[in-house]
Fold this sequence. Notes:
The protein is α/β, with parallel strands linked by helices.
Amino acid sequence: MNKLALSIISLTTLAASAGNPVYLDTKASIDDRVADALGRMTMEEKVNLLHAQGKFYSGGVPRLGIPGLWMSDGPHGVRAEINWNDWGYAGWTTDSITAFPALTALAATWNPSLAQEYGRALGEEALYRGKNVMLGPGVNILRTPLNGRNFEYMGEDPYLAGELVGPYIEGLQSTGTAACVKHFALNNQEKWRGTVEVKISDRALYEIYFPAFKKAVDAGVWSVMGAYNKIWGQHCCHNDRLLNQILKGDWGFDGVVITDWGGAHDTREAATNGLDIEMGSYTNGLTTEADGFSFNDYYLADPYLALLKSGEADEATLNDKASRVLKLIFRTAMAPEKQVGALCTPKHYDVARRIGSESLVLLKNQGNILPIDPAKYGKILVVGNNATRALNEGGGSSELKVKDMISPLQALQELWPGKVEYAEGYTSGRPLYEQHENIDTAALAQLRQEAVAKAKEADLVIYVGGLNKNAYQDCESTDRESFNLPYQQDLLIEQLAAACPNIVVVNLSGNPVAMDWADRVPAIIQGWYLGSMGGYSLADVISGKVNPSGKLPFSIPYKLEDVGAHSFGEKAYPGVESATASGTLIPGSVVEAGNNPVVDYCEDILVGYRWHDTKKIPARYPFGYGLSYTTFDYSKPRLSAKQITQGENLTVEVDVTNTGNVVGAETVQLYISDPKSSLPRPIKELKGFKKVSLQPGETATVAFTVTPAELSFYDPAKGWVAEPGKFIVTIGNQKADFTLK
Length: 741
Ligand code: GLC
């Protein structure tokens, strides 16, 4: 080897020993790499890993060449680039992405393999955008249809959410991008989200609000986001029982707990109660900054370092936090085989389109007006602001900047050239996020009259309305203030139906809404925020290219008073302000002015259909309901045994036949009832589902395995128990009449 080469080698070796960037052995196991890095780090460097260095960037170890973590919202796509240290958008020209359908849409597909495709495609876009942690999925449970963020979550049932959240996480993390399941736990309303103390029984916690998070941990999620609210007197982002005892202890979570932005409020609690990375402190998590605070002022920055140096905080806990963060970095930013990402590919658009079309729920189809045969109609009129509105914008942190956004109107006009006219019918009439809107009733009346006049001349009306992403609609940080559709749409729909009896109503929303006009329209489709390919997804179903197979992920009640959370006065929602204010009010932080409100989950485990069934209050359309353009017949369910001993499994079989003349998919659902139990149980609980696609005339046998887990309930005194006794198995079928037992 010549002299020059020898001198280069010696130079490199010299540099390494002088503490300049060294490259930790990426071939070693993650645990070995963590131990190696930790052993080289100073106390200050370990603390530096535990808090933000930017709005969406947390610290690394520059001296060792260990990068920090780039985080990004949200659950439905990679959010546009945000400035280093304020909530403004950076105005890049390279961050337009694919908006995937909202998670309520994914839930409505009841299709775990689609969830896996969703996560994988999102992960590829995150890779291209250089993000290591995607701040999603959200699996908070829909206990009230007024919650502004239900569109980001997966409905009212923990089993359905749990079966879909795992595959989504596996798909996302298969790209080397971390998921961050949120918001742990009980962030089930936006009103007072930063301060509200949730009062809840352990039974409801473990049977309703925990299961989807537990399934996420069992699926190997690499990070969890703490919720803003409080439980047991502590904020969820640093809560000893929630994070140390349950999440990291009982459930064995080996990843990183990240605050929601601005969710940390106390150094000593942050130091000892299970928090690993503190983000967004001193902000309201969406729009405000508190000036005068630097990243070193974060609770887990200099204040924590001071506690460590004074011996008031122990180094063992610091090492645990730092090890978890290092592990996350080695799983993502420093993964040995970095994968290549991509944006807005045909594959990603296909995934978005298929999830969208498979998510649409056909609620009513009187006279089989759907699918539409355009040859039967002269003039087709599309009405509604949601037929053209860019529903990727707004809604809060999950908002997206897209390369493409196919609207329903565009897709229908492409499908039926020259036949489709449009009337807006209604408008929200104000910019996004503007607080309380001043409804311009004169403008609405004008739009309504124009639309109704056109409807009188039309042969078919396709109405596309619903909620949108404005404040007080489906939007973060505010809850809805009415169960009814906004902008006088109920009146508009009634008048359109009177003007043109051939009307199809498409409701796009992330929450149930009042449908008092349901008996006066022949067809209703419940749709969602469908993302970049949403117009095509909707046109695919309306035209019959795709046979709808969506099932409701939540009940649609007749009225708000029929909902458990709204049956115990305001203490159950939105809560009441307690006598004692607590917590220091940091200016501009998410801890809003006023005393600490307390919300009491009085309905306990009876959430959604559990309430409707037990209280015998029928929903207008029940959870799990959804029609098809074909019909399905079910055989009587068959059991592998009439009697099983404790611990033994049971097989339930049912034959399903497509008795119509078009191919279609049906989701067969299995519910368990335990009529006699030592603690009261809901009438029935979802414990299995399988989606099958059947050709006309085809029959398939669908089999479920029922194990003790599916028969169990949570007894706070004993844990999960499956008590001996009689159980009833109910098969949920297309008619959702739950008569197959
Ligand atoms: C927001 C949201 C959270 C989001 C985070 C970053 O306040 O609550 O879901 O991921 O802050 O934007």
